[in-house]
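Closing statement on the acetyl coenzyme *A sub-project.
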Amino acid sequence: MIRSVIRGVGHYLPDRVVPNEWFESFLDTSDEWIVSRSGIERRHFAAEGQPTSDLAIRAARAALGNAGIEADAIDAVIVATSTPDLTFPATATIVQAGLGMTCGFAFDVQAVCAGFIYALANADSLIKSGQAERVLVIGAETFSRIMNWEDRSTCVLFGDGAGAVVIERAEGDGSNADRGILATDLHSDGRYREILQVSGGVSASRTTGHLMMAGKEVFRHAVEKLAQTTTDVLAKAGLTPAEIDRVVPHQANIRIITRTAQKLGLPMEKVVVTVADHGNTSAASIPLALSVAAARGELRTGDLVVTEAIGGGLAWGAVALRW
Ligand code: ACO
């Protein structure tokens, strides 16, 4: 059976680190409020004039280096982002050119914070259907560009960054002991689009707009749907939450992460947490966390790893894989 195995992982964070105290200078907020409600202590912001593709290219180079694979051996580049450089072309084509690739194909996936999960599931399908042998899957965002700096309930929560993985076709025996992606589980429900959305867009208003969120409602959906998709993706692979070695959740909010782990009966020692240092980097958060966890030695060959995310749409899902 064809399996998609992660061969390399890498990330990039912009140089500018913004601590919670920075917001105290222009908003009625405090480090104590932000830490206690979200677990976020600092985040990175891209430099003026530094586009999402720049972050993506740097993360991609790190992942290619980690995999020991040259860019021209890649068949497809997928960038998950809701903050593309331009309305078109796809940021992925800008990344493709930036990596010096003159072959293969590149496209973007837009599923907000679930974008990397969607991109990974698509990459797995491209490999399983024989359309690609090696895929570069990137999550990259500059959410600092769509913040409403007067809205203290949202602008303190997000950050910029990028993470990338190289996945490659391998042969497995079809059991859940195989390395690589074992199952994927994707969902969306557009009835909930208004609880987390951006106020502008090309076709609706010819503007970029600002992020708006009904935080309490998003919170409620997040815990319930993330626990369910994690259970479901494991069931598809004939596994249960008790067998998980590592969960790499979307890094939105420590309270969502801990409540979801509790619902699944997982001890926090099994959960990768980077939200304190990165804030919510939307589609970049999972590959960033994978890269940080790999560098910390928290992911070992053969580990059963589940990643899960939810975001605007609502769109959510999970991927179960053996590292
Ligand atoms: N500093 C100080 N006070 C604040 C701030 C702030 N930065 N933001 C809001 N408040 C105030 C509110 O104005 C409100 O004051 P009031 O009672 O006088 O009206 C009070 O704090 C409580 O506000 P709530 O919105 O009820 O605060 P809550 O405890 O729900 O926490 C939060 C807000 C952190 C947004 C929470 O709802 C949450 O975590 N939601 C999930 C949001 C999230 O993580 N989204 C991202 C996941 S999805 C994705 O990644 C796209």
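The domain at 2-171 is CATH 3.40.47.10 (Peroxisomal Thiolase; Chain A, domain 1). With this model delivered, the sub-project is considered complete and its resources will be redirected to Aim 3.
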